[in-house]
Amino acid sequence: MNGHEEVERALRAAPPHDLLDALRGVLTRHYRARTVDLLMADYGLTVLQPVSVLPHTTEPLSVHNSPQGRAFGAQEPLREEHEEGTVVHLPVSVRGDRLGVLTVTLPTGTCAPAIVTELADIAAMLAHAVTVAERDTDLYLQARRKDRLTLAAEMQWQLLPGRACSRAEYAIGAQLEPAYAVRGDNFDWSATADHLVLTVTNGMGEGIDAALLSNLTINALRNARRAGVPIADQAALADQAVFAQYRGEAYLSVLLLDFELATGRVTVVDAGSPRLLALREGTVTAVDFDAQLPLGMFEETDYKAQEFRVRPGDRLVFVSDGVHAVASPAGEAYGDRALARAISATRLLPPAEMPRAVLRELTGHRGRPIPDDDALIVCLDWYGRPTTDRPTTEDPDPRRNRPSFPETPPRDPR
After folding, report:
1. H or E stretch including 238?
2. What is the dihedral of CA 72, 317, 180, 208, to 10 degrees?
């Protein structure tokens, strides 16, 4: 049995809390590894923390100025030569979601390129194993926090699908702030072979009340989505659920989008939504839809869907009012202009890194590290399907084939 096969078998057989020890044993036998360590990225994406029995026995490492952090950011293996041997830092990621870094020390002269490739594959296997193990142990979730989460933040992070996701047609990255005390903002996504459904929520209220409202709304939307109904009906059913609970005293803004992966056609329901800006061919433009009522404001609201199209190379950026409306010490709102500059300045960053970079710039505008309101950024890069797999993008409706972006969504004549 080769090392790759033994790692796979060992990870499957290991108890959820014991994945690292099981992996360490295999790497010691097959690769003569001297040390094997797993570091998890914290909720704020600022440090990498060791997976160990609490309290941690080693100090966290910066994501921004450490070799481990460089491997995490670049999502590529990084080698270092030391007296004790060759140290290899390997990204631990699953379907684009960056979990952390696996660090392995090997004897000098034994780290050929083929070995690095094998170890990178093993790190990916570990990422899958950790994702499954988190259902049954708190060990990896504890390693992700450098401070204590508020109860509201605990609820919000547990509700999220991840912080990033990628496949051939698209890549998504998202981040919430304040990471350890977020209250009501949220995001969700789900994909099939043919569609991606993305939900961006701008929460209302404070503390646990905001988290409860977001939890009810997200789960109502998921329940409707899993029943197979269109997004306009998903919004209507979630609206009914929120109104039934709060009778109009609490509500929240949501933007629902259904992407047709083969064509780039997007169906949208704007329920008092967060802001959407699009970067196409170097130009950033605000995308506006016909605004409809937030979910839960009134009983039995009827929601209408609109359409637009994305093209390969487009970047869509969604922000909550905690980004768009945040004020400087002088009272100046961040606004579309500053946001457009930030989107242009970060255009070369991958979606998984872009939100954090903009939030760092937003901190400078705000003039203080801790925001008064939740700040949410979701970045989606659209690649489209290869031409051989995609039907023609020409639409019989000429209104949706104009070269400008965004296209003005047609209003429902009713």
Report:
1. helix 231-246
2. -150
d(CA 290, CA 293): 10
The whole model's pTM is what? 0.90
DSSP secondary-structure letter at 40? Answer: E
List domains and CATH numbers for the chain.
Answer: 3-143 (3.30.450.40), 148-382 (3.60.40.10)
Burial 9-33 (b: 16+ CB within 10 A, else e): ebbeebebebbbebbbbbbeebbeb
- Our measurement of the distance from residue 336's CA atom to the centroid of its chain's CA atoms, rounded to an integer in Å, reads 22
What are the φ/ψ torsions at residue 203 (nearest 5 degrees)?
Answer: -70, 165
Query: 98: which strand partners?
Result: 93
Gap between the Cα atoms of 29 and 48, Å rounded: 27
- pLDDT tens digits, residue range 109-143? 888 999 999 999 999 999 999 999 999 999 999 99
- For residues 300 and 305, what is the distance between their CA atoms, to the nearest angstrom? 16
Q: Are 204 and 404 in contact (CB under 8 A)?
A: no
Q: How far is CA 31 from CA 9, 100, 104, 125, in A?
A: 16, 21, 10, 17
Q: How far apart are CA 267 and CA 182, in angstroms?
A: 29
Residue 351 to residue 313: CA distance in whole angstroms: 12
Reported as type and span, the H/E element at residue 92 is strand 85-94
Helix 19-31 / helix 3-13 crossing angle, nearest 10 deg: 160
Residue with tokens 């070269």: 403
Dig out the tokens for 121 from the structure. 């594959």
Q: How far apart are CA 250 and CA 297, in angstroms?
A: 7
Q: Tell me: the pLDDT tens digits for 300-356? A: 899 999 999 999 999 999 999 888 887 777 677 787 888 999 999 999 999 999 999
Return the structure tokens found at 348: 């070369």
